[in-house]
Amino acid sequence: MSELSKIAVGGGCHWCTEAVFQSLQGVTQVKQGFISSYGTNSDFSEAVIVHFTSKEISLSTIIDVHLKTHKSTSQHSMREKYRSAIYTFSKEQAIEVNSIFKGFQVEYKDQLITKVLAFKEFKPSREEITNYYKKNPQKPFCKIYITPKLELLKQAVIPNLKMKLK
Which of 59, 135, 141, 144 has the highest Cβ tally under 10 A? Predict the structure, then answer.
C-alpha cells in the first residue's frame, strides 16, 4: 500500500462520520456524501471517503475507529440510509481490509454487522452541509451526537491513535 491512501466508510450520519475522521492525525481529507456498491448494496447510503497518510495512521486504526464510533453491531431500522460498511477501492485493499476486520470481531460481544464492499460510486453532499461540525460545533445536533463521539475517541483504547483536537 502506498503512503497516501484512501478508504470509504459508512455507518451513521455522514456529519458525524466526517467529524470523527477529520479529528485524526494522519487523515488529510474527508469527503462527505453518499456511496453505492454493487448488487443488493447498489443504493446510495451516507458515507465518507477518508484520505490518509499510512505512515501517520494505519488502515487498521481507521477501521478500529470506524467500528467504535457507530453502531457496528446493531441492525436498526435506518440501516438503508446508514449502511454499516467499509468500501474498498481494489481487490488487494479488500483482502487487506477483510483480514484486519476479522481480527476485530474478538473485541465485540455481539457479531459485527459491518460489511466490506467494493466501492462503486460517490455523490458529494451539498457544500452547505460539508464540514458541518467545524462550522457548527455549538449547534444542538453537534453537541448531542458528534461531540460525544469525539470524547469517546479520546477515552478509547486504540493503539497509536493521535487526534488533532484537544
Answer: 59
The range of the structural domain enclosing residue 128 comes to 4-155
Instruction: Name beta bridge partners: 115.
Output: 85
Amino acid in the structure at residue 104: F
* Cell numbers for 37: 456498491
Q: CA torsion angle for 132, 61, 110, 143 (degrees, to 10)?
A: -20
Q: Is residue 116 part of a domain?
A: yes
**Residue range 82-104, pLDDT digits in tens:** 899 999 999 999 999 999 999 99
Which residues, 6 or more positions from 63, have their beta carbon under 8 angstroms from its beta carbon? 7, 86, 97, 100, 101, 104
| Euclidean distance between CA atoms 133 and 29, whole angstroms | 15
Instruction: Provide the number of structural domains found in the chain.
Output: 1
Sheet holding 85-88, edge to edge: 115-118, 85-88, 4-10, 45-53, 27-36, 121-124
Residue 164 lies in a domain: no
Q: Is there a domain that residue 161 lies in?
A: no
Q: What is the DSSP letter of 121?
A: E
Q: Is residue 68 part of a domain?
A: yes
